[in-house]
Amino acid sequence: MKLTAALFGNTYSFKDLKEVMAKANEEKSGDQLAGIAAADAKERMAAKLVLSDLTLADIRNHPLIPPETDEVSRVIEEAVNEKIYAEIRNWTVAELREHLLRQDTHNEEIRRISRGLTSEMVAAVTKLMSNLDLVQAAAKIEVTTHCNITIGQRGVLAGRAQPNHPTDSIRGMKASLFEALSYGIGDAVLGINPVIDSAESVKAMLIATKEEMEKWRIPTQNCVLAHIKTQMRAIRQGAPADLVFQSLAGTQDGNTAFGIDVKLLDEADDMIRREGTGTGPNLWYFETGQGSELSSEAHHGVDQVTLESRCYGLAKKYKPFIVNTVVGFIGPEYLYDSKQVIRAGLEDHFMGKLQQVPMGVDVCYTNHMKADQNDMDNLAVLLAAAGVNYIIGVPMADDCMLNYQSTSYHDIATLRETMRLRPAPAFEKWLEMMGIMENGRLTPIAGDPSIFM
Amino acid sequence: MNRTIPLDQLVDKVMAELQKKLPAALQNAASQPAANVTESRMPSETGSADDFGPPISHVPNAKWAEGVEELIASTPARIGVWRSGTRPLTREMLKFRCDHAAAIDSVYGTVSQPLLDEFGLFTVDTYFENIDNYLKRPDMGRIIRDDGVERIRRSCRMKPQVQIVVSDGLSANAVDANLRDVYPSLLDSLSAHGLSLGTPFFVRGGRVAVMDHIGDIIEPEVLVLLIGERPGLVSSRSMSAYMCYRPRKGTVESDRTVISNIHPRGTPSLEAGAHIGSVLKAMLEQKTSGVNLDI
Amino acid sequence: MVRDVQNRMTERSDDRWILSVGIDIGTSTTKMIVSRLRLMRTSSVLSLPRYDIVERELLYESPIYSTPLKSADEVDADGIWQILAREYEHAAVRPEELKSGAVIITGETANKRNAKRILHLLAERSGDFVVATAGADLEGLLAGKGAGAEERSLRIRGAVANIDIGGGTANAAIFQRGKPIGTVTFHVGGRLIQVDTGGAITEVSPSIRRWLNASGYRLEPGQRVSFEVLQQICSAMSRNMLDYLAGYASADQEPVRALLLGEPLSPMPPIEEWMVSGGIGRLMEEAKPNGLADTAVHGDIGPLLAHTIKELSSRYAIRLVKPDQTVRATVIGAGMQSTEISGATVHLDESALPIRNLPVQKLEVTPHLLAHTEHLAQAVSQTMRTAAGLFDAEASPPFALAISGLRPLTYASLQRLSETIYESFIAYFPSSGVIVVVCENDIAKALGQALAKRAGAGPKLVCIDQIKVEHGDYIDLGQPVAGSMIPVVVKTLAFHNRVEVTDV
């Protein structure tokens, strides 16, 4: 494994793969905070050059976090198809990039190759891709999933209705939900972040969303994004959950900080299959985001792009219905400005899709970040072009409970109209029946939440 | 013990109700306070609501207009906002941008010196250097500069029962907007509970975990940090009170007890201040804080 | 219906349950229920604590007893106590376990002598905080809640009326979007005219005579009437009542005016659905009487009246819906729906609790008052003076000062306010040992703290919040639950005289 490169008259040599991977990243404040980022632009390019010549076997043979000590590494290792890996093990990372971008490499070929890739290989190739590379390659990949309805088809842009309320008021939550539905949003999931992490509160919201789904015969799925243990308690008490949710980290220690491990996820998986109300086969909702491992000091000196890729490697095991990175939520110490957030959003979406994960993105930012709503408009358009499965719908993009800004009901409707995208087919049929949509466009009554009163 | 009114009197009252003899005087009195209502307004509030007025429905020809108003009243979320094509109406979009403007400006603001002087708070700095670095390097906001440590050692009573620290954190505005109410209310609640206070001061460029460094220097029994929160669009002036029993280097987040969202439209600052005394009292009694504290 | 009363203490420790009783002593029947109310923290761990009643579970329903009477209008209090003692035993509750609830004395039983006996009895032998209530407005509201009209109104746009019809009166309560918007009482009831199976009138209640006269009927005991005449009377009575509720008839004209008891309805939106609870509600579910023999099974016109209302009500453009409860609507409302819970950051002197039947005097503290000390002093003084004129100045406490407004409030204005309140209270009520303040907004702990600073060893303080009360309400304050909050029963009586102060 060659870890040196000559550039601009200097010889750059790197200690190990971990250092190359970290320094080959586009600039991220999180890698700087961890003290592993390239010192300057030239060192960054030297690392990219070294990385481009490494083979996929080099990457697999030099695990960044050994499977012996980390269960996420084990899950990723165990998922590799050895025959397919054998076919591509001698490809360099550069060749992998070019293969993905070839005109004759289609969805089917990528899907096959992906079974021979580890999350680290996926992260490596991402570091060599430009933003437009990430858009184009991701756009080739179609990952469809089915809970109560199918989403992820080419040409479909779904939306999560996120009708959060600062005190978990059921009436307030429903008010925001009605607004979402009236804009044609909610095909990905009716998903609520609760303020109070109690089984009672979770149950009450699952029942309330289910009630509306049944009353208006809405073809979608519900979910309350509490801790998995709380959801399990609620389900045991009879709460109707179509999907179960959990935040994931890319290391075992990171997951410990979230209060989860693979055993618990297996247990929850078994439970949602037995006691969930969703049709399936895809019954999970995961959220991830670059920087979470560093924030819990569980990063093992590995860069945040690679760790993020490993989240998807773990997510894949549970055949999720939806996964999204909450890209700009974590703060400027991990992603400093809009340039870094836009980059991370495209990276995460691509890395997830390349691992056959049904990726959505929470296109978002906090107010101490150097970003604003215009930057979100930009990223949302880029992701729509990249074929993102869904994005988040919040009233006017302002989440009054989580105190951050995402994308709005209006934004999803706008992306659909301008990018010629449609809601999930089953959901669109329902929107037509309700008179909210006609031929893929909102009707004059769309935007009136009292339709649902 | 005169715990209830005498029974006969009670019966008379119940009977008065039965016969619906509401005294005429009461009815007159009922209209009294309303007569004093005037147009006077309190000093400007947080958020853009004062400039834009309360949210009302913009949905034309709603299926049920009163219903839309009821929905709007049930949540602070921006609903019933209507659209032009698929885009928001101009005023609604500008209102959103105004709230964002207030939020970013409060990150880059500074706390009013006269306010700190009013409460006799001296200032020490962390190693944050400047706001941009503060945002990128939270670790530097957790350590007081050496000259500050020296100042603390010189000025503060060591090992007090209660140490109060104020910091700008992510919103200097939050300190400006809330300190004048939350701080004296907190002092009252300390004296109501018979707790003794050390020497309070202000930390510029502080992060929550600066509590640990201060704990190492002063060794208080309990420490309260009043710090500006990451600004949101609902309020750019929201403050949190972090409380910890014997904070020291290595204290974990789950050992801290927090009351957040203190601002004029959120957790009332006076009530928060009054409640903090009870929480500190419980910490001292139970010799713990955070998730282990039973309140 | 006994549902596992014994298991109620085995719940998880973060659940706080309070046991609540409802007792309805009416003209003809008496019944009780035991329920439990679950308090759950509804604020996040990052917020000030706040608890709400999140679940109301019916644990026990007594059979329906005939009200034991000593004479035609005198309740046999000992007989009532025997019933209650037996039912407490069946329900497996001890009176001292009961933390909340209400006894409601209804119909013609609600006279002073009975109320006095029953209140004596309950004060001595029943739970700590079982409060006595009466009054047709409240009865109608509780029945409306128990029958499910309040809940139903949240599910439809229009107003929902529940008409609780018993032996002597019909109490209608109208709800819209979960809020009560009006109550009205009629002289309509199953026992107003008593008749035997042969058609002989055995009694005509004095309360219906004016209406009978105004409608052209002459009925005297001993007189024989045909089934058709009874049908006509029931029909006319029902039509007057339903027309009035539907907005087709005015209270200004006879005979409708003669049918009304107390105040007419204030103007309100049209009713979309109505339901009938009470004894008549239950009779509506039974077979229709076809002659005098079927009608007079209980010796009165009840069954006929019930079916007349059932048939007539379907002719209006108002949907007739089934109530959740019929004959037990009031007792269930009293037992399960009467209690609220105060905020959890309050200032309490436990030794002053419980407090029953405390009248409310309201003070709206506007931003203007907060900004102008002299106006504030005037308003507070005016409120105290009015209260001193109305209530017993020696009582401890004499009344509850209900404060609305106060948002936003600064430390300086809080100090000013508490100074003014304290000084004024001491001036008007120098010998009262307890001050009770009920705030609408979450400020009780800070205000209590500020008042306590001034009171020192003086009067005891009970300062609670997040309870909305109005002039003319009476409140009952229970003992603390988990040390930090108290159950409160607000008895809304002055429905018609309420002055609405609209929030700005």
UniProtKB/TrEMBL annotation, chain A:
Main location class: other
Needed co-factor(s): adenosylcob(III)alamin
GO biological process: amino acid metabolic process; ethanolamine catabolic process
EC class name: lyase
GO cellular component labels: cytosol; ethanolamine ammonia-lyase complex; ethanolamine degradation polyhedral organelle
Entry binding sites for substrate: R160, A161, Q162, N193, E287, D362
Catalytic activity: ethanolamine = acetaldehyde + NH4(+)
A Pfam match: EutB
Enzyme Commission number(s) from the entry: 4.3.1.7
InterPro entries for the chain: Aldolase_TIM (IPR013785), EutB (IPR010628), EutB_dom_2_sf (IPR044939), EutB_N_sf (IPR044941)
GO molecular function, a single term: cobalamin binding
Co-factor binding details: Binds between the large and small subunits.
Pathway, per record: Amine and polyamine degradation; ethanolamine degradation
Keyword tags: Bacterial microcompartment, Cobalamin, Cobalt, Lyase
Subcellular location: Bacterial microcompartment
Binding site for adenosylcob(III)alamin: P194, Q246, S295, M401
Top-rank taxon: Bacteria
Entry's family note: Belongs to the EutB family.
Subunit structure: The basic unit is a heterodimer which dimerizes to form tetramers. The heterotetramers trimerize; 6 large subunits form a core ring with 6 small subunits projecting outwards.
Task performed by this protein: Catalyzes the deamination of various vicinal amino-alcohols to oxo compounds. Allows this organism to utilize ethanolamine as the sole source of nitrogen and carbon in the presence of vitamin B12.
Name of the protein this chain belongs to: Ethanolamine ammonia-lyase large subunit
UniProtKB/TrEMBL annotation, chain B:
Keywords, in A-Z order: Bacterial microcompartment, Cobalamin, Cobalt, Lyase
Cofactor: how bound: Binds between the large and small subunits.
GO BP, one annotated term: amino acid metabolic process
GO CC terms in record: ethanolamine ammonia-lyase complex; ethanolamine degradation polyhedral organelle
Cofactor: adenosylcob(III)alamin
InterPro entries for this protein: EutC, EutC_C, EutC_N
Ranges of compositional bias, category Polar residues: 37-47
Binding site for adenosylcob(III)alamin: V208, E229
Enzyme Commission code: 4.3.1.7
Molecular function as annotated in GO: cobalamin binding; ethanolamine ammonia-lyase activity
Subcellular location: Bacterial microcompartment
Region (Disordered): 27-56
Pathway: Amine and polyamine degradation; ethanolamine degradation
Bias (Low complexity) ranges: 27-36
Catalytic activity: ethanolamine = acetaldehyde + NH4(+)
Summary of subunit composition and partner proteins: The basic unit is a heterodimer which dimerizes to form tetramers. The heterotetramers trimerize; 6 large subunits form a core ring with 6 small subunits projecting outwards.
Role this protein plays: Catalyzes the deamination of various vicinal amino-alcohols to oxo compounds. Allows this organism to utilize ethanolamine as the sole source of nitrogen and carbon in the presence of external vitamin B12.
Family according to the record: Belongs to the EutC family.
The name this protein goes by in its record: Ethanolamine ammonia-lyase small subunit
Organism: Cohnella pontilimi
